[in-house]
Fold Heme biosynthesis protein HemY.
Amino acid sequence: MFRIVFLFIVLGLGLFAGTLFSDQQGYVLISFANTTTEMSVTTLVIFVIAALAALFLLEFIIKRSLRATSATWNWFSIRKLKRARRYTNEGIIKLLEGDWKAAEKKVTRWANHHDMPLLCYLIASEAAQGMGDDSKREKYLVLAEQQKGHSLAVEITKIRQMVRNQQYADAHSQLEHLKGRYPNNTIVISLLKKTYVGLKLWGALDELLPRLKKNKLISDEEYHQLFYQAQLGKMKEIGSQKGVEGLLSYWAHLPKKLKQDDNVVQLMVEQLILHNGDSEAYIILRDSIKQTPSNKLLPLIMQVNLPDIHPAVVMLEGLAKKQPNNPEINSTLGQLYLREQRWMEAQHAFEAALQQRVSISDYSYLAEALEQQNMKQAAGEVSRKALSLIDKT
């Protein structure tokens, strides 16, 4: 636009000057080498204006040609980009469908024309992982690492694949670096959980569980499962390394809340029994049962190898008076009576337990108590009752 205005201004000035000096045109002499050219001033002005107009026109044509070339090039580039995106989207669908080979083919075919080739190579590595082709998986991860930015996505993809391949040690070493850089990354936290379980790092898992629960990365059911799994794992480690003394020291330093947890008490008692700490196990069990007679803990009394079971009998007799309708107390007491060969007391204890709930084992114990008292007919009827229950189950 400026050039057109400029041409009109020059043309106007030329016309004005031509009119003004029409009687005094003068002349211009141009000499170059052996060539001379003469012309009037008016002719020179017109020639200059025509030359400028020609130059402007030539510039316009060249720019228009370049624009057309650029537009054509952009059209082809955009077309390739759209096709690359379409193939990538189709590859993602194939990946979700489990068609690994098709997914790999689609995302790598036009990866060079995609505006984010990193995505293509990560999807291709996942497809190679699905096919079990480690060499291709590594090749695509290397290509992904060569792309600019998004290094976290590459690292997480690599670690996730290690976890799937149960390469927990390698995954754990890399996650420890990421944990410091991205302490609140939920994917990093979830992967840490899997490596801790895989490597049996129970102490680390126990510390991680509150963060998993806070970030709602596990359900309440899974939380409790992993919590008790971690407690058992730590007890096993201590028991295998330090024996009964180590377990008792660990128990002494546990929070009061955990000491009142029936599941934790059960785990500790079982580990003490496993390492021949029956007397110590009974003390922990006795104190817990006195506070709250738990149906989970009462049967453990029968697993403890005590030189004298009379204190346990006295304790259960006291509990039976307070809670005469508790079937687990009566059943455990009846089993202790059987050990002491107190057949009649055992009979009454099992009958009281069976009035509250049906138990095949209690019917068997009751039949034994009756048999020992020569009450063969009654023992036979009870045995048949137990067999009928077994058939039903």
Remarks:
- Residues 226-304 form one domain.
